[in-house]
Amino acid sequence: MYKLIIKGGQPLNGVINAAGSKNSALPILFASILADSPLTLKNTPFLSDVSTTLRLLMDMGSEFVLEADGSIFVDSSKLSNLVADYQLVKTMRASILSLGPTLAKYGEAKISLPGGCAIGSRPVNLHLKALSELGADIKVENGYIYAQADRLVGATIDFDQVTVTATENIIMAATLAKGVTTINNAAQEPEITDLIRCLIKMGAKISGEGTSTITINGVEQLSGTTYEVCPDRIEVGTYLVAAAITRGKITIKKSDPKDLRVVLEKLAESGANISTSKNTITLDMEGKKPKSVNIKTSAYPNFPTDMQAQFTALNSVADSSSTITETIFENRFMHIPELSRMGADLSLEGNTVVCRGVKSLTGAKLMATDLRASASLVLAGLAAKGTTTIDRVYHLDRGYETIEEKLKLLGANIERVQD
Ligand code: EPZ
């Protein structure tokens, strides 16, 4: 295993490029199952979750080529195995996204239940209920989901809770269903819009992207295409907080400011000077201590839960007190005890963290737990006095492409070393 060693106190300065979006690349890779010919995906991030997805698809019979320019050529048109095995699914919950496409294309699927993770129980009941409403026969036995449908039939799906991957699963399943499917209370994340745009290029008939009502007219077949994945707004947001917490100035190219409106507003509220163009965001903290900002997470277009831990780190060294309320996941607070060991003054009251800004944090030996909590520990280490060591860095590699290399480009004193 590897760990990161960070010597903090260095303001970040410089220019980096945003990577492609993890949460867009994953559903689009699974959408390749729907196509009768290969899909080429450009701007795909080099992440362990992408590798896990490719391994799962290969296990089901897909073939793929990693091109020199970073694009992925994937042919999932002739699957020989309709099972997503527990050994792979347990390492990545997003494997549930193989269910909708496999069922729609082949009429059957056997997918391991993903199980929970550090941030919550992560049930999939909404996925299964909606697929049943499209006519699927669903059974759950011995930790597996068994789904069967001669042909899915379009229906009106009313999600009583906003859910990203369940929305994606139903959109993909409905592309090959007989008739029209309307999804009400659909999630509106930019990654869903990206998936829809790719499916339309593959021949799907979908309208309403970017809104909470998506309509899908089922077609007989979909073809492969070439598609460029949108920028990763959470990776971009994380590096912007890294610049704010170290009082530096950075520019991020190949990003999309439109996807980060609320996060940019909160960074401006913390005192950052933000300037944007079509594909570039510059944050200049002008050497100032951050101002405290109150945060409440909720579904897009509101403040993203995936940026909550990062802002908890920022508020830990802000000028006064603040509250951060997490409304999406029941246990997305694994970073709190670790930040507290660095001297942060944080107290959890129900699903709200009360942050009292301290003058500075001090480096400590820390352990990463889940992807975004781990990112918040890196941010705290960059700002802390002294040295911070973070174990179990594999959590970070799931969602951040060569994080220490990008931070070094920005002047951070950070090394990845073997345990
Ligand atoms: C997606 O997870 C993202 N993952 C998560 O990003 C993100 O945090 C989350 O959406 C919320 O924005 C991917 O896109 C691969 P949900 P997902 O279904 O789809 C409950 C990261 O860091 N729920 O929108 O699994 C659920 O428990 C990851 O990149 C049910 O009860 O989240 C949660 O409380 C972490 N039953 C709420 O809905 C269901 O069947 C929203 O979850 C499904 C969800």
The average pLDDT score comes to 97
The unreliable regions are none
* Count of strand segments: 24
Record the strand order, biggest sheet: 22-23-1-24
Largest sheet: 4 strands, mixed
Helix content: 25-40%
Q: Which ions and ligands are bound to the chains?
A: ligand EPZ
**Approximately what portion of the residues adopt beta-strand conformation?**
25-35%
Shape: globular
Give the structural class: alpha/beta
Question: Rg to the nearest angstrom?
Answer: 21 Å
Number of helices: 14
Distance between the termini: 6 Å
Characterization of this structure:
The chain is built from 14 helices and 24 strands. The protein is α/β, with parallel strands linked by helices. Strand 22, helix 12 (371-383) and strand 23 (387-391) form a beta-alpha-beta unit. The chain is globular and about 65 Å long. The model has no long low-confidence stretch (mean pLDDT 97). It binds ligand EPZ. The site of ligand EPZ has 24 residues, from helix 1, helix 5, helix 6 and helix 12.
